[in-house]
Design a protein that fits this description.
Layout (H helix, E strand, L loop, with lengths): L10 H8 L7 H13 L3 H21 L5 E5 L9 H8 L4 E5 L3 H5 L12 E5 L6 H8 L10 E5 L8 H13 L6 E9 L3 H11 L9 E2 H6 L5 E2 L5 E2 L16 E7 L2
Parallel strand pairs: 1-2, 1-4, 2-3, 4-5, 5-6
Antiparallel strand pairs: 5-9, 7-9, 8-9
Helix pairs in contact: 1-2, 3-4, 6-7
Protein name: S-adenosyl methyltransferase
Pfam families: Methyltransf_19
Keywords: Methyltransferase, Transferase
């Protein structure tokens, strides 16, 4: 078992802390609090990203009839994980989680609960090995049937933009026509305070996360049919009645593979 270092902050645990989860240490809380002192809006961004994920899964299940999900770069389990949202609506849903972070692996048992009718699996593989990801997913999913690929706040960890686009293309290449991409990422051009805080965080020696201009996030969906309203700030994507729709520096969308 890989040793987990609790003396240095870890981005998955900091994110977990902002989401109100319990899988974090004092060092993560300190780093999270230092970030929120500079930019309090980060908690809204973390929770809005999570809420977008839930709404996109509900749309996929209820409107698109999707019953298979491939969640790559899963992160730490919190509330309303992909399988919980999907199986609540369609108990027969099948979910494969992929994350090669030893910390996530240590908590993966929380992701492996499933309805009797459905299935969940966890594959400790890197995003940088898309063909291996698809091959492993095929053990649990029927890859002749439409599958939703979920990339939630993971591509910002890929520094090279062309490489990030290539990874998305290669993952989608392994999925059949009628599959979907649900993607949301930190964005530039909406909130200068967020950009300043994230750029400063990236200089601390922690694992960097790169915010991208909205047109670069849109380009991840190249060749796909975007579900209305396209790529937008996440609070504006199919908002719940009465929910705030102020734009934030997190953009996402849902696209269908023709």
């Amino acid at each position: 078992m890989t040793q987990i270092d609790t003396s240095v902050p870890h981005s998955a645990r900091i994110w977990n802390y902002w989401l109100g989860g319990k899988d974090n240490y004092p060092v993560d809380e300190a780093a999270g609090d230092a970030y929120t002192a500079v930019f309090p809006g980060i908690v809204t961004i973390a929770r809005s990203s999570r809420a977008f994920l839930g709404r996109s899964i509900r749309h996929l299940v209820q409107e698109a009839g999707v019953r298979q999900f491939l969640d790559v770069g899963t992160g730490l389990p919190t509330v309303d994980n992909t399988h919980e949202v999907a199986q609540r609506l369609a108990p027969e849903s099948r979910i494969v989680y992929v994350d090669n972070d030893p910390l996530v692996l240590a908590h993966a048992r929380a992701l492996l609960t499933s309805t009797p009718e459905g299935a969940t699996a966890y594959e400790p593989i890197s995003l940088h090995e898309p063909e291996r990801v698809i091959e492993a997913a095929g053990k649990t999913l029927d890859l002749t049937r439409p599958t939703a690929l979920i990339l939630s706040g993971i591509l910002g960890h890929v520094a090279d933009y062309d490489e990030a686009r290539d990874l998305v293309r290669r993952l989608l290449a392994g999925l059949p026509s009628g599959s979907y991409l649900s993607l949301n990422e930190g964005s530039r051009g909406t909130d200068p305070a967020y950009e300043q805080a994230q750029d400063a965080y990236n200089e601390t020696g922690a694992v960097p996360y790169h915010l991208r201009p909205v047109e670069q996030i849109e380009a991840f969906f190249e060749g796909l049919e975007l579900v209305e309203p396209g790529v937008v700030s996440v609070p504006r994507w199919h908002p719940e009645p009465g929910a705030p729709t102020e734009p934030i520096g997190q953009h996402g969308g849902l696209g269908r593979k023709p």
